[in-house]
Amino acid sequence: MLTAGVDLAADPVGTAIAAVAWSASGAEVRLVAVPADDDAIVELAGRAAKTGIDCPLGWPDEFVAFVSAHRAGPAPVPADVAAKQWRRRLAWRHTDEVARRMTGLVPLSVSADRIGHTAMRCAALQTRLARAGRDVDRSGAGAVVEVYPAASLKVWGLPWRGYKTAGNRAALGVVVDRLQQAAPWLDLGDHEQLCRRSDHALDAVVAALTARAAVRDQVGRPGERELAAARTEGWIAIPTAALAGLPG
């Protein structure tokens, strides 16, 4: 089985992809590439059983309704709710709030932060994957699943912050060291040095590992009442089991 990971950015130059092949006893990283354009992402996702994408797959339902209403005329501003509270529902999706409760981490707002540029690219990628015959279900039930590498690392007991940007190369190396210690069954092969130089590369590998957790049903799933929103807004797959449970 092959799982893939995408650390998506608004442009190919900051985007990384990874592919991990799984066996009963372990896993081998077969591909890590930076940069990565849309063609490379679609091709890899077409071969993988599941692809983890580090980017919101949709926007908050209430934000979409608010903007649509504002375009047509006066925006619906609730009179009996504090401004900070109703704006919060426009900025963060339900899955973002669930991730906050589960991990203590605060995902970027897809409607009020620069990650919105990346989400536009992601929406176009979802369209291309669907046209190529891949089952794109934003709840994570199909060929792609939304992931949050920092949350995965934190749940797995690994360093999850302080390793971003080239100025934190030493911290990035520590994350790789800790990952290899926690997952001796994971063979980074010739891609280890790239993961030590690029946090995008490492996050793509973590995204592929999280995709495997989703395949193994070792991530949180939306409940019955959450499913409708998950299918429009997206749903972050946060691991619920140890890293050691991924092979097999």
Automatic annotation (TrEMBL):
The organism's place on the tree of life at top rank: Bacteria
Protein name in UniProt: DUF429 domain-containing protein
Record organism: Actinoplanes nipponensis
UniProt cross-references to Pfam families, sorted A to Z: DUF429
